[in-house]
Amino acid sequence: MYFSCPICNNHLYYANGNLSVTCKNGHSFDFSKEGYLYLLPPNKKHSKSPGDDKAMVAARRRFLSGGHYQLFADALCRIARRCLSDTAEPVVMDAGCGEGYYTARMASALRESGQRAQLFGCDISKAAVRLAAKAAPDVSFAVASNFSLPLADASADLLADIFAPVVPEEFCRVTKPGGHFVLAVPSARHLFGLKEILYDAPYENETKDTAYSGFHFVQRFPVRGTLSLQGQDVQDLFAMTPYYWKTPKAGCEKLKTISCLTTEIGFDFLLYARDPV
């Protein structure tokens, strides 16, 4: 068992016929029927059901399953293979994995390249992790927070963060010296066509290279494309973005009248390396 106890950070061990895990201090956690662990202590929860709800998770699953962001998944997999090419049995953590789309694709890409990688995904949303565990049974998933990742110190060769909260101190703690951290950020005009519908004065996203303590910047990998959507895909895209929460009612109502959408899309993958100790 590679996960660590979210309460005392000691190693977890399989128990009860592999139906649960426990640490040396007696903290015990059961596997769900889908195979994931719930490692989010009550004092780390900020609401009864933190993270994305079932509707948002379902929208993301439908949208991503349609292959609309395949170019981003392919780029992430190329970066992962490059970072781990000299590592025999790499450990990869997808921090804030959502419903596991990118986690599962990294697992497949590394397996196809012959690397015996161990993939782990954590997200604060129970609804998201449940779907992730069903879709990728060869990946270890847990409900957990990026602010308290259930991994031992210096255990991950690669940590990926795809639009999840960045916690530099915690990411630095779990990444091995010489390991890598890859962060996805939106390009300046990512989803600009959607913003033109939602807002009277659409704005470009800010782009910059951010320094994180314990890491040094390696390279920016820009990925650009154009997306054309129809019907439910338009609403699903909206439901999986932050705009879903902050768009004025008028913009939401206007989008409901839209049957097709064409927009620019773009991720920048920022690659960092963990500094030597």
TrEMBL record:
GO molecular function per UniProt: metal ion binding; methyltransferase activity
Gene3D superfamilies in the record, alphabetically? Vaccinia Virus protein VP39
Reading the lineage from the top rank, the first entry is Bacteria
Please give the biological process terms from Gene Ontology that the record holds: methylation
Per UniProt, Zn(2+) binds at: C5, C8, C23, H27
**What Pfam families does UniProt report for this protein, alphabetically?**
Methyltransf_31, Zn_ribbon_RlmA
Where would I find the 23S rRNA (guanine(745)-N(1))-methyltransferase N-terminal domain in this sequence? 3-48
Annotated Methyltransferase domain ranges read: 91-192
List ligand-binding residues for S-adenosyl-L-methionine. Answer: Y69, E99, G100, H190
- Keywords tagged on the record: Metal-binding, Methyltransferase, S-adenosyl-L-methionine, Transferase, Zinc
What PANTHER family does this protein's entry cite? Answer: 23S RRNA (GUANINE(745)-N(1))-METHYLTRANSFERASE (PTHR42912:SF45), METHYLTRANSFERASE (PTHR42912)
- Identify this protein by name: Methyltransferase domain-containing protein
Q: Which organism is it from?
A: Caproicibacterium lactatifermentans
